[in-house]
Design a protein that fits this description.
The complex is a heterodimer of chains A (348) and B (304). By secondary structure, chain A is of the alpha/beta class. Chain A has two domains: 3-40 and 149-346, no CATH class; 47-131, Periplasmic binding protein-like II (D-Maltodextrin-Binding Protein, domain 2, 3-Layer(aba) Sandwich). Helix content of chain A is 66%, strand content 8%. Chain A has a four-stranded mixed β-sheet with strand order 2-1-3-4, sandwiched between helices. Chain A starts with a helix and ends with a helix. Chain B is of the alpha/beta class. Chain B has two domains: 3-216, P-loop containing nucleotide triphosphate hydrolases (Rossmann fold, 3-Layer(aba) Sandwich); 227-288, Alpha-Beta Plaits. Helices cover 33% and strands 28% of the residues of chain B. In chain B, the strands form three sheets. Chain B has a six-stranded mixed β-sheet with strand order 6-7-8-3-9-10, with helices on both faces. A four-stranded antiparallel β-sheet of chain B has the order 2-1-4-5, with helices on one face. A four-stranded antiparallel β-sheet of chain B has the order 12-13-11-14, covered by helices on one side. In chain B, helix 3 (94-104) runs parallel beside helix 5. The longest helix of chain B has 16 residues, at 166-181. The radius of gyration of chain B is 23 Å and the shape is elongated. Chain B starts with a strand and ends with a helix. The model of chain B has no long low-confidence stretch (mean pLDDT 89). The chains are: A alpha/beta (348), B alpha/beta (304). Chain A binds chain B through residues 1, 3, 6-7, 9-10, 13-14, 17-18, 182-184, 186-193, 348, and chain B through 48, 51-55, 73, 76-77, 79, 81, 83-92, 96, 99-101, 103-106, 146.
Chain lengths: 348, 304
């Protein structure tokens, strides 16, 4: 057995013996995907509304009928104007519509509980469209790429961006720092084995583990979550592999900078997890951020990866549409690997 | 005689702290050489330079004929290193650890098993036990086995007996003696002075400086002349009284008694007289047999 093979075998033994961690790492993507795909949803349903009508006309009756029959609303009834404030305050209803006839023309006002901004904005928009239905020029809207506006479509790329950083960066840095802490790294370095062989043998098992997770995530996305399947899956795979290599490089870089496992966990947690969740566009759109933060997001690999994945997985566009993202990721990978290897060699 | 380890003016600084200050000594081939010094003397730094883990700031060193800076690749194949702490994989079994370290050096466990067979006498009964579940003495034997599996020319042991019980320590030194018979040069460091006497030659190191290098017997030669044991009912007043005597150069506690170092003209009877007059009961002073610890205290005192 060659030196490299026995190094890999040793690493695999570590992984297999650390059964709990491996289980967590394999179960986590499944749980995250199911949570974000099913349970957590940004769609707004069951908006509870009441109406205030000063003078019933055919028009108001029609509008109220439309509100009653709309699946997004729960119509709670017609109330006098003085009760509206109390109902909103107590949280019994989410929005109220006031109809008033002035100079023979019907005016309406919408009062919405904006303690949950997202809910208020969405329900106001729903109400507007339900009320103005049939009046004025018709607007025909098509939501492309995600006609049912499923939130799973939005979250799958984000979760992939998060999971691979988490597993690759965190696990490799912890495993390398563990050897530094226990002193076994010194024994490896004192042996005739070249440092880059040691490093490579550390990265390969986590790379393989990431491939297993990638398979798991893709199977779940295309079956359970119902993402459209097409030839672009090939591109999804190789771009992800590039991203995994980048994440492994980051893990290696962390391991050269810190000397305890706790520090490695903290650095990979604080430096990578939080920016990935907050600044990558996974939850909050990059375009809505102040310019300074937008600049900052450019340095976060997950931002580019997630945006590439949206194009490839959801929009199903050819790979030429994500060239910028892929090139930036490739550049970052080279930079991080070069830095990490230089740092690692300088240690001695 | 050829030298297995040759150190010339080796200096290593950590910022302002000088860990090694122009250290020079050599270890002849096939000797059991001890590096004796208290914690923080610079022993581990010296080991890290000899094993090529650290680069020296000044000076040079060769191990097994290879320079630690220029020929570090060739050097690494020739040495066996056992760091201060237990540094094996606790989640791998005894056999897996041994096989892994053998494969790092591109050898098979069977090839050199004869060398470590005496060490593995007990360990071979549970080859599938995880290394982390072994007792302290067993871990140490496994670590020694792993350091020897590629039949190194020079064995570098950094405080191998720290935290090991007295019986295991004794056994360990017996094993080192056997290895020396096999022609392996051993450089072993310890902060236990009593272990120094089991080495052929020792170097005394303190605060990064080598104080003396010689055979332990030679080093303590002449030490007995002006060295006495002293005891009394009240030990602390005795210590103070002895230190105030004109011919007493040094006085320090040594186990249950005091060791007194005197000038050549020391008069035992006169001293006893003066101490009794000073009101001390049961004063006894008798000649002592000096050992490495006495020597160390003296050298460190002169140095400091």
């Amino acid at each position: 057995m060659s030196i490299f093979q026995s190094l890999i075998k040793k690493e695999v033994l570590h992984l297999v013996r650390d059964f709990r961690t491996v289980t967590v790492v394999l179960v986590m993507p499944v749980v995250l995907l199911s949570l974000f795909g099913f349970a957590i949803s940004t769609e707004v349903n069951n908006v509870r509304i009441v109406a205030v009508v000063e003078q019933h006309t055919d028009e108001t009756v029609q509008i109220i009928d439309r509100l009653r029959s709309n699946a997004y609303f729960t119509f709670e009834g017609i109330v006098p104007f003085r009760d509206v404030d109390g109902l909103l305050r107590k949280g019994r209803v989410d929005a109220a519509v006031v109809f008033r006839t002035e100079d023979g023309r019907l005016q309406h006002q919408i009062l919405a509980d904006a303690s949950n901004t997202n809910m208020a904005q969405t329900s106001t928009a729903y109400l507007e469209s339900a009320i103005s239905y049939g009046t004025g020029p018709a607007v025909v809207s098509h939501t492309l790429y995600n006609p049912q506006l499923k939130s799973a479509y939005n979250f799958v790329p984000g979760i992939m961006g998060m999971i691979f950083i988490l597993i690759c960066a965190m696990m490799t840095s912890v495993s390398i720092v563990n050897e530094k802490e226990s002193g076994t790294m010194n024994l490896l370095l004192v042996s005739p084995v070249r440092p880059r062989t040691i490093i490579l043998s550390k990265l390969v098992p986590y790379f393989l583990l990431s491939c297993v997770i990638l398979t798991l995530v893709l199977v779940l996305s295309y079956t359970v979550l119902g993402l459209p399947f097409s030839f672009s899956v090939i591109h999804v795979i190789w771009v992800t592999i590039l991203y995994v290599i980048l994440a492994l490089g980051l893990g290696l870089l962390i391991s050269t900078l810190v000397s305890t496992q706790v520090a490695a966990l903290l650095v990979s947690g604080v430096m990578f997890m939080i920016p990935v969740v907050l600044l990558s566009g996974m939850i909050f759109p990059v375009e809505n951020m102040p310019p300074v933060l937008q600049w900052l997001t450019c340095a976060i690999p997950a931002r580019w990866y997630i945006s590439a994945m949206r194009v490839l997985m959801v929009q199903q566009l050819p790979v030429s549409y994500v060239l910028t993202e892929v090139l930036i990721l490739a550049g970052m990978t080279l930079l991080v690997l070069a830095l990490a290897i230089r740092k690692f060699n300088a240690k001695r | 005689m050829r030298c297995a380890v040759e150190i010339q003016g080796l200096t290593k600084r950590y910022g302002k702290l000088v860990a090694l200050d122009h250290v020079s000594f050599s270890v002849p081939e096939g000797t059991l050489f001890g590096l004796i010094g208290p914690d923080g003397a610079g022993k581990t730094t010296l080991y890290q330079i000899l094993t090529t883990l650290l680069g020296p700031d000044e000076g040079s060193a060769t191990v097994a004929g290879w320079d630690v800076v220029k020929d570090y690749k060739k050097l690494r194949a020739e040495i066996g290193y056992m760091p201060e702490r237990f540094s094996l994989y606790p989640d791998l079994t005894v056999n897996e650890n041994l096989q892994f370290f053998a494969s790092l050096f591109g050898v098979d466990v069977k090839d050199n098993f004869d060398l470590i067979a005496p060490i593995f006498d007990q360990l071979k009964n549970f080859p599938n036990r995880r290394a982390g579940a072994l007792s302290g003495g067993m871990k140490q034997k496994l670590a020694l086995g792993c350091a020897l599996i590629h039949r190194p020319k020079v064995l570098l042991l950094d405080e191998p007996t720290t935290g090991v019980d007295a019986v295991s320590r004794g056994e360990f030194w017996d094993m080192l003696a056997t290895l020396k018979e096999n022609g392996i040069t051993i450089l072993v460091s310890t902060s236990y002075m009593d272990e120094a006497e089991r080495c052929e030659r020792i170097a005394l190191i303190n605060k990064g400086k080598i104080l003396d290098v010689n055979a332990p017997g030679r080093l303590i030669e002449g030490l007995d002349q002006n060295l006495y044991n002293a005891s009394a009912k009240e030990m602390y007043p005795l210590l103070e009284a002895l230190r105030s005597l004109p011919d007493v150069r040094d006085c320090y506690t040594f186990g249950a008694t005091l060791h007194v170092v005197t000038d050549d003209g020391f008069d035992l009877d006169a001293a006893m007289c003066r101490l009794r007059q000073g009101g001390l009961d049961d004063v006894r002073i008798w000649p002592a047999k000096g050992n490495v610890e006495d020597l160390f205290i003296q050298l460190a005192k002169n140095d400091g």
